[in-house]
Every structure is written in C-alpha cells, then in structure tokens.
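Q: Please design a sequence for this.
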C-alpha cells in the first residue's frame, strides 16, 4: 500500500493559512473569503428541478463552471425555466434528463456529458432524494424500496458511472448531499435516517478507497431548509397512508394523522448555504478538502458525532496497513 500521508499532500501549502480560513468557511464559520473561481470545471448535479440542486446549478455556473443540470421526467417546466435562465444570463448550464432510478438514463447522461467536454467530469453532486414520513412499521415495501433506491442506490449508480474517467485523469471530487439525519435520528421520519446513514457510510468508504486515485469525497450535512422537498414528501407520505393496512396504522394514530400534511413554511434558513459551502470546498486544494461539512446557521448536533467518528477510525485503523488511507482522509 503506497504511503499517501496527508502531510505529503499538504507540503508546500500548509504554511499559507489560506487553507485553514477556507476550511472554516466551508464549515459555516463567518470568514470573509473571495468568491471561488470554478472556471474550467465540469460539474454534474442530480435533482435540479428545485431546491439545493437547482440553486447549485445556477451558483456554480455563475462562478464559471460548465454545469450539467439533470432532472427526471423532462420535458418539464422546471427544465424550460433553467434553460431560459442560462440563455438570458449567458450561463453554461446544460439541462439533461436523468432519473437516478434508471440505470440506462444514468449511463446515457454521464456518457453524453463526458462526450460534450471530451473528458471525465471534474465534480459529481449527488443530490436527488426523497423523504417519506411515518413510523417504520407503516413503511411498506413499496415506500422502503423507493427510499433506498433513490437515496442510496441512486447515489451509487452515479458514482460508478463517473469514476472510471475520473480515475483515468487522477482527479475529481464527489459530493454526497446527506443530512443532519444521517448522524442523528428523529422518530417517525420513516426510513429517511436509514438511507442517509447509508449515504454517510458509503461516502466515507469511497473517500478512503479513492485516495490513491487523487479523487476526493465530501458529505454535505444540511439541517432543515425551506426547499420544496416537503411537497413531494407530503405526496409520497399521503399515498403511503392511503394504502397502508390498519393493522400497522392503528399503533400510531396521532402520527398517522399528520402524515402527508407537513408544512414547510416555518423554516427560514437560506438554502443557498448549501451551494456556497460546496463551492468553498472546491476552492480548496485537492487533498485538503474536508470529508464532512455540516451546513446550517442553527444547531448542528452531528458535529460531535463527526469528531468522535473520525477519532475512532484513526485510532482503530491508523496504524494498520490501511492507515495511510484513513489518515489521509482525516488529516491525521
């Protein structure tokens, strides 16, 4: 196993102080930093019809990137609106059809993007996801399959599609948009935490395995934001409630009554926090980017778990044959 010591990767930049400032900014601290320049970067984002995906597509393009903004079920009004914005503001946003549930659409979209730029992608943002609320017992197999297929297997499909050409170039970065609920659990949130815990584990394992290939992984952990995710969540949760059997519903009458009726208007945090955090990560030199970035102006309960997890990984495997990989990711 080659020695990919983090200190080797940082030699020549460790003394500048800029890395530390940018890292603090990526973590959400109030640090003034110049707007990142993403010129020359080709970025593919899933779930761009609304929310973090839509905002990230525009933000990255305004910073100079070529953005492949993907969404399912095109043509659709959201796709037309994004195309019009790109035309009006001279942004390099290329809207593409991609349903993360469909192997063929994943392969076709990634292949088309790579052909358009003549090389592998620089950045993948795995963002598309679903939430279905209610007690675990009420989650039938249809809801369970949809949650895991979208939130976990969808991410995996995209990773497998982009990695061969990223590895060929020995560079690239992958973002997994997770959640606070990928580290802590709110009762009656269906399998959302289960899927996001899987996203966290998959992202961390990828980070270790991709060190020799010069490819980084960052797991973004947003708190609650007023995006449109709750609209689809209500639809999926309402459909689940309508088809669920009484034998499972009867144990949780008060919770079941609220399924499909979430009001997302009470959240006031700025969803732009998430694309800004990702852009700041990309502005950092390769090899110095953090594994996890909690994003929210309020409480971030996952920070303590992130810290103890990193410490445990280094203490457990840091001196083993896999130690160089673990230490490189955790800067240990």
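A: Design:
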């Amino acid at each position: 196993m080659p020695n990919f010591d983090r200190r080797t990767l940082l030699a020549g930049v460790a003394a500048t102080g800029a890395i530390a400032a940018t890292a603090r900014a990526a973590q959400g601290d109030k640090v003034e930093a110049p707007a990142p320049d993403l010129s020359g970067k080709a970025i593919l984002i899933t779930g761009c019809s609304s929310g973090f995906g839509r905002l990230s597509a525009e933000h990255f393009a305004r910073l100079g990137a070529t953005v492949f903004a993907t969404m399912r079920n095109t043509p659709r009004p959201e796709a037309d609106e994004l195309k019009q914005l790109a035309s009006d503001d001279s942004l390099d946003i290329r809207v593409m059809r991609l349903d993360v549930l469909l192997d063929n659409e994943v392969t076709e979209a990634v292949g088309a993007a790579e052909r358009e730029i003549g090389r592998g992608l620089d950045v993948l943002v795995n963002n598309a996801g679903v939430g279905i609320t209610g007690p675990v017992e009420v989650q039938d197999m249809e809801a369970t399959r949809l949650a895991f297929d979208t939130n976990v297997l969808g991410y995996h499909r995209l990773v497998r599609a982009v990695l061969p050409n990223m590895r060929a170039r020995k560079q690239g970065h992958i973002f997994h948009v997770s959640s606070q609920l990928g580290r802590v659990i709110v009762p009656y949130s269906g399998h959302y935490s289960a899927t996001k815990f899987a996203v966290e584990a998959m992202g961390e394992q990828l980070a270790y395995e991709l060190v020799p290939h010069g490819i980084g992984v960052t797991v973004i952990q947003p708190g609650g934001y007023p995006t449109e995710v709750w609209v689809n969540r209500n639809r999926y949760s309402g459909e689940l409630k309508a088809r669920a059997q009484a034998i499972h519903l009867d144990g949780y009458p008060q919770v079941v009554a609220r399924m499909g009726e979430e009001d997302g208007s009470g959240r006031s945090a700025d969803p732009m926090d998430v694309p800004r955090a990702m852009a700041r990560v990309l502005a950092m030199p390769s090899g110095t980017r953090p594994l996890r970035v909690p994003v929210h102006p309020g409480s971030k309960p996952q920070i303590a778990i992130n810290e103890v997890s990193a410490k445990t990984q280094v203490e457990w495997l840091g001196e083993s044959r896999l130690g160089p990989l673990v230490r490189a990711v955790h800067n240990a």
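Q: Thanks. Anything notable?
A: The CA atoms of residues 108 and 274 lie 27 Å apart. Residues 6-25+38-330 form a domain with the Rossmann fold fold (CATH 3.40.50.720).
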